[in-house]
Design goal:
The chain is of the alpha/beta class and 433 residues long. It has two domains: 4-156 and 312-359, D-Maltodextrin-Binding Protein, domain 2; 158-310 and 391-432, D-Maltodextrin-Binding Protein, domain 2, CATH 3.40.190. It has helices at residues 4-14, 57-70, 83-95, 107-114, 128-131, 136-140, 164-169, 179-193, 209-216, 233-247, 260-268, 281-288, 290-294, 325-335, 338-348, 355-358, 361-364, 372-383, 397-412, 418-432; strands spanning 43-50, 74-81, 102-105, 143-144, 147-148, 151-156, 158-163, 274-278, 296-299, 309-310, 312-317, 387-388. The strands form four sheets. Strands 2-1-3-11-6 form a five-stranded mixed β-sheet. It has a three-stranded antiparallel β-sheet with strand order 8-7-9. The chain has a two-stranded antiparallel ribbon with strand order 4-5. Strand 1 (43-50), helix 2 and strand 2 (74-81) form a beta-alpha-beta unit. The longest helix has 16 residues, at 397-412. It starts with a helix and ends with a helix.
C-alpha cells in the first residue's frame, strides 16, 4: 500500500508536476560517478528515482540484480531522491555535468531541460518497433519540437471517487460525468446537505486540474507559435464556468488559498461528495478514513464535451553527457519493458505505459470479490484509450497556469470582469511567449 508521503509525490509529480521548480544546491545527494570503473572492472550506471524508497526497495533491488546478472559488465547504483528535492538537485547536477545516467522525472519538468539540450535524443537510438511497444499518446508526452527526450514509465489517471451517502442525501442517483452535470450536482448537494460537491484549487503553483478542464471543455491553450489561443468564446465560457461556481457558493472559498491536499482532507472528513484522484488513493482513504472508505465508489473521470481524460506520466531520461550511453539506454529500456512495467504497476497500483502490459487481465477483468480498489483500477485502465497529457509540453509552461489562475482568481473575487481577466491572462502569457 502506498503511504501518504509517496501518494503526495504521485499527485504533484505526475499530474504535470504542478509545483514551482526551485534551483538550489546538490545538498546530500552524492556526486555522480558516471562512467567510473568499479573495482570489478564494471561500468557503473547511476540511477535516480523520485521518492520510491522504502515502499519499493525490494522491487528495485530485485530488478537491478536481474539486470546485472543479464549484463555482467554493468553495475547499477540506485539513488532515491525526495520528490521535494529532485528538481533543484537534477538542475544543479546537469549544470555541473555530474548528473546520473538515468533519471526518473516527468515530461513537464524534463522538458525544461530538454530546451537546454540536456537529454539524449532517443528517436535515432530506439528502433521504431520498440517505440511502438509504448502507448502512442504517452510516447508523445516526452517529445519537444519533434524530438523524443524520454522513455515512458508508469502512469496515473484521475477517477471520480465519490461518497454514495452524500449523493443519496442530495437526491443524486449517478455521479456526474461532465462538468455541466457537475454544476447541477454541486447545487443539489449544497441545497440538500449544506456540503460541497467537490474542491478544485486555483492556487497558481498547485494542481493543474482546472487548467486541464479548459482543454476538456474544448479550449486550445496555445497556438502553433506558442501564443495564447484561449481568448476565444470557448475560453471565455470555461472562465465563466469556474467564476460562476465560485460566486454561486458551490466551491469552498479555500480554493483560492489551499492546494489539492485540502481536497483530500475535505473528502476524508466527509465534507465533499467527490474527489478527483488516482485509483491508488483509495487505499489511503481506507487507512485514514475507514468510515468514508466504506461509502466510497469510483466512476470515470469528469470531463467536458471533448471526452478527453487526463493522464500523468513518469518517464526516464538519460543525460546527453553520460559516459555510459549504451548501458544507460539498455537499463532504461529494461526498466520500462512490458514485463517490468507490469510487475511495477501491480506492486504500486499504478498503470503501465506499454500496450501489452495494459492488456493484461489485471487491468481488464475484475477479480472475484472485487474491492473498490480493483474497480477503480479497471476504470482507470479503460480510460487510457481517451487519455493524454492535456497541457502540452511548452517553454514557460508553469507561467501559463499562473497567468490563467491569477486572473481567474481576480474574476472570482469580482476584481475583474471575465472579459478583462481572460484578456489580461492572454497578454501576460504572450509577453513571455
Amino acid at each position: 500500500m502506498l503511504r501518504i508521503s509517496w501518494k503526495k509525490s504521485l499527485l504533484f509529480a505526475l499530474c504535470g508536476l504542478l509545483l514551482g521548480w526551485l534551483v538550489g544546491c546538490m545538498g546530500g545527494i552524492p556526486s555522480s560517478n558516471t562512467g567510473q570503473q568499479t573495482t570489478g572492472g564494471k561500468q557503473e550506471i547511476e540511477f535516480w528515482t523520485m521518492q520510491l524508497q522504502p515502499q519499493f526497495t525490494d522491487y528495485f533491488n530485485s530488478l537491478i540484480s536481474k539486470f546485472e546478472q543479464e549484463n555482467p559488465t554493468l553495475k547499477v547504483r540506485w539513488v532515491d531522491v525526495p520528490w521535494t528535492d529532485m528538481e533543484r538537485k537534477i538542475l544543479t547536477a546537469v549544470s555541473a555535468k555530474t548528473a546520473p545516467d538515468v533519471v526518473n522525472l516527468n515530461p513537464g519538468f524534463a522538458s525544461q531541460l530538454a530546451e537546454r539540450n540536456a537529454w539524449m535524443e532517443l528517436d535515432g537510438k530506439v528502433a521504431p518497433e520498440v517505440q511502438q511497444l509504448y502507448l502512442p499518446n504517452i510516447w508523445k508526452a516526452s517529445t519537444l519540437n519533434g524530438k523524443t527526450f524520454g522513455l515512458p514509465w508508469y502512469l496515473t489517471t484521475r477517477v471520480a471517487i465519490y461518497n454514495r451517502e452524500i449523493l443519496k442525501q442530495a437526491g443524486v442517483s449517478q455521479p456526474p460525468a461532465t462538468y455541466q452535470e457537475l454544476a447541477t450536482t454541486a447545487k443539489q448537494v449544497k441545497d440538500k446537505t449544506g456540503k460541497y460537491a467537490f474542491f478544485a484549487t486555483v492556487v497558481p503553483e498547485d494542481s493543474g486540474e482546472v487548467l486541464e478542464s479548459f482543454v476538456q471543455m474544448g479550449v486550445s491553450l496555445v497556438d502553433a507559435n506558442g501564443k495564447a489561443a484561449f481568448n476565444t468564446p470557448q475560453g471565455k465560457a470555461a472562465f465563466q464556468y469556474w467564476v460562476d461556481m465560485y460566486k454561486n457558493g458551490l466551491m469552498p472559498k479555500e480554493v483560492l488559498t489551499e492546494g489539492h491536499r485540502h481536497a483530500i482532507d475535505l473528502y476524508q472528513q466527509g465534507n465533499t461528495a467527490i474527489l478527483a484522484s488516482g485509483a491508488e488513493f483509495l487505499n489511503t482513504i481506507s487507512t485514514n478514513a475507514p468510515t468514508i472508505a466504506k461509502v466510497s465508489s469510483s466512476a470515470p473521470q469528469i470531463t467536458g464535451e471533448t471526452g478527453k481524460k487526463n493522464v500523468a506520466v513518469m518517464n526516464l531520461v538519460i543525460p546527453k553527457d553520460t559516459d555510459v550511453p549504451d548501458g544507460a539506454l539498455k537499463f532504461a529500456l529494461y526498466v520500462t519493458n512490458d514485463a517490468n512495467q507490469l510487475a511495477f504497476a501491480k506492486t504500486a497500483n499504478v498503470l503501465p505505459s506499454t500496450v501489452s502490459a495494459l492488456k493484461d487481465p489485471y487491468f481488464t477483468t475484475l477479480p472475484v470479490n472485487a474491492t473498490p480498489v480493483d474497480q477503480a483500477r479497471i476504470i482507470s485502465a479503460q480510460q487510457m484509450k481517451d487519455a493524454e497529457v492535456l497541457v502540452p509540453v511548452m517553454k514557460n509552461g508553469k507561467q501559463l497556469q499562473k497567468a490563467i489562475y491569477s486572473n481567474l482568481q481576480a474574476a472570482m473575487l469580482g476584481q475583474k470582469s471575465v472579459d478583462q481577466a481572460i484578456n489580461d491572462a492572454a497578454n501576460q502569457w504572450n509577453s513571455l511567449a
